[in-house]
Specification:
mainly alpha, single chain, 281 residues, 0% strand
Length: 281
């Protein structure tokens, strides 16, 4: 226990400044590009999944929540919403950066999520596309739910850094305890030998409407416990608080459940296929 605690504190404190810098940079660009993103997604039309998949790759909850509001107002299609959800990395990027992951690895991970999001976005639109009735306005509730968008980039960056640092501290401690008492090799072998089951579990964890899910999944992947397929299964379904916002503002519960089922199914299928094909990043 003592060894696990010391190891956790050393690892967590070491990445704190890198975490803050990563969030500061991302908050700047999120505020800078927010209005442009709105106009692009509004005018995307039948190419919505393409733009949604690309713009959704930007981390944190902002754009996935924005897309959820747009869908509830029927400004974008269900395929575009799915593309955004699948490509959104939430807190994956700052965790990878703070842990010193190689740039080419980060680009490949994000690129894979974007490609999957775009492809399935178009497929979903082809199957489920309906006529979209535009409204005069959308209900902006990002501030109420999570993002703190209007409080300036410094305050927002500090808030994100503290929140994620606490999650990293807790999850790293729990992982280290398991490693100490069970063994990294044995734990890794359980998930590696049960790739299919791992994808089901990871996809379910990814649906948790909180940044904790992407933090946990990314940490498990970096620690070699999750395979790439298992990690991707969870990261594809993880869209921050967007799912919670969807159920709050879109009153068609059957439709909401259908969207969650689609996201979960895609996560599981892609995770299993990645592992079966032996894809490595």
């Amino acid at each position: 226990m003592k060894h696990a605690l010391i190891h956790t504190l050393k690892d967590s404190i070491k990445i704190l400044p890198f975490l803050f810098i990563a969030f500061l940079i991302m908050e700047y660009f999120e505020h800078k590009l927010n209005n442009k993103n709105k106009e692009i997604i509004k005018k995307s039309g039948k190419f919505g999944p393409l733009f949604g998949g690309i713009l959704g790759a930007f981390p944190q909850c902002g754009f996935s929540v924005l897309a959820t509001n747009f869908y509830a107002a029927r400004i974008i299609s269900i395929g575009t919403l799915v593309a955004v959800y699948l490509s959104t990395s939430d807190e994956m990027l700052p965790i990878l950066l703070s842990e010193g992951a190689k740039i080419d690895v980060i680009i490949k991970l994000i690129g894979l999520k974007v490609i999957i999001g775009i492809i399935f976005g178009f497929i979903i639109d082809f199957i489920f596309r309906k006529t979209i009735d535009k409204k005069d306005h959308i209900h902006e509730i990002c501030d109420e739910e999570h993002c703190d968008c209007n409080h300036g980039i410094l305050k927002s960056s500090i808030k994100h850094t503290i929140n994620i640092f606490i999650f990293i501290l807790i999850t790293t401690f729990l992982i280290n305890i398991v490693m100490e008492y069970y063994g990294e090799e044995k734990l890794s072998n359980i998930f590696i030998s049960n790739n299919i089951l791992s994808s089901f579990i990871a996809s379910l964890v990814g649906l948790i409407p909180n940044c904790a899910s992407s933090v946990i999944i990314t940490e498990l992947y970096l620690n070699g416990i999750f395979t790439l397929g298992s990690a991707m299964a969870g990261l594809l379904t993880g869209s921050g608080v967007a799912i919670m916002v969807l159920f709050k503002i879109n009153h068609n519960m059957k439709e909401n459940i259908k969207i969650v089922a689609i996201i979960y199914s895609i996560g599981v299928i892609c995770g299993i296929l990645i592992d079966l094909l032996g894809v490595v990043i």
